[in-house]
Amino acid sequence: MEKERDKETRKSSRKRGCLISALIVLALSVYAFWQIGEPSRRAKRAHQAIRPDMSVSDVENLLTGRHYCFYQVMRDGDWQSVSRDDFMVVLANQTTSLPVATRLQLTFMGISPGRVSFFVEIDNSRNVFKITDPYGWD
For the chain, what is the domain count? Predict the structure, then answer.
């Protein structure tokens, strides 16, 4: 009688262990699939919030989470990435008689290899004048 009870206990314990393992695998799978779409969701919120005539600092304040902001200046027909400080110097020294093309490349990352990027172009008055469509939606 004791042996039968031990056998049943082991059997129910094994079932419980398998059920718990299956639930853990399911939860991790749901989490992983949710995280794959996270860069797209954050990029979409930022893209919708950025409007023409916003300042560069207003755009920077909107950025949250895991992202990269590349500051770019057009030099000799090519876009070159510069530091934030150099970018601000270029913006401060810009005149309407000698315009310089400047933009921000915003890239949103997640735990997956996927990422989403778009450009925010800046005019001579240091405000947003164009926002490109996002690319790399995963």
Answer: 2
- Let me know whether 53 and 116 are in one domain: yes
CA dist 102 and 125 (Å) reads 11
In 3D, which of 65, 99, 103, 62 has the Cα closest to residue 82? 103
Q: Taking a C-beta distance cutoff of 8 angstroms, is the pair 116, 40 a contact?
A: yes
pLDDT of residue 52: 92
Question: Is 137 among the domain residues?
Answer: no
Per the structure, the complete domain to which residue 11 belongs is given by: 1-36
67 near 42, Cβ under 8 Å?
A: yes
Q: Is the pTM of this model over 0.85?
A: no
Residue-wise pLDDT for 92-102, tens only, equals: 887 655 667 89
